[in-house]
Amino acid sequence: MPSEDHAPPVQGEVIHICGKVSREILDNGSCNWSREYKKLPQALPDYFSMGNPIPASAFSSSLQPNQQQDENKELAALAKSIHADSTEEDLYRLTELTVKWVIGNPQPIKLKQVNYQRQQNKTGVSFKRHHRAAQKGNTWQAIGSLFDT
Fold first, then answer.
1. Is the dihedral of CA 114, 91, 74, 38 positive or negative?
2. DSSP 65-132
3. For residue 110, what are the CA distances in angstroms to 16, 66, 107, 147?
4. What is the pLDDT of residues 93-125, one digit of tens each?
5. pLDDT digits 0-9 by tens, 27-63
6. How far apart, in whole angstroms, are the C-alpha atoms of residue 73 and residue 89?
7. Treating both helix axes as pointing N-terminal to C-terminal, what angle do 10-22 and 35-49 enclose, rounded to 10 degrees?
8. How many CA atoms lie within 13 A of 12 on its CB side?
9. Contact call for residues 17 and 1 (beta carbons, < 8 A)
């Protein structure tokens, strides 16, 4: 899925959001966390309300109706609570519940207007500058370009 385009169905977008937020927090140490990143998990409850709740049968028939309801409440609360210092466990649980929601909504739901922007990867831009400078033989410019933002 392209990193700068929004996924056409809501199901793809919720998976993309979980991955993007988890990658930023766990892999990048939240160094790029901004208002735009904060908007990503905040958008999830609205997306979840566009489809069916997590069905009890998504993974286990042993779930009681009140447990199913608890998972749906947990999913919405967890999405709202994600922040730059969220734990690995919270992010994994958010992803697990999101996947259950997607499984329970097999028919594509059209993604409409979003209220956030996706961040561009500045590292990729710096690497391109570094590579061009290195190809031209300008070692100091190549090294300096690695630290450009």
1. negative
2. HHHHHHHHHHHHHHHHH--TT--HHHHHHHHHHHHHHHHT--S--B----S--PPP-HHHHHHHHHHH
3. 15, 29, 10, 40
4. 999 999 999 999 999 999 887 888 755 544 444
5. 999 999 998 899 999 999 999 999 999 887 545 555 5
6. 17
7. 150
8. 13
9. no
User: Which amino acid would we find at residue 46?
Assistant: D
Lookup: tokens for 57: 């049968």
* Integer Cα distance of 69 and 83 in angstroms: 24
Q: Is the dihedral of CA 13, 109, 105, 54 positive or negative?
A: positive
DSSP β-bridge partners for residue 30: none
**Two tokens at 27?**
């892999």
In whole angstroms, what separates CA 19 from the centre of its chain? 4
Question: Which strand (E) or helix (H) includes residue 140?
Answer: helix 139-145
Distance CA 101, CA 135 (A): 48
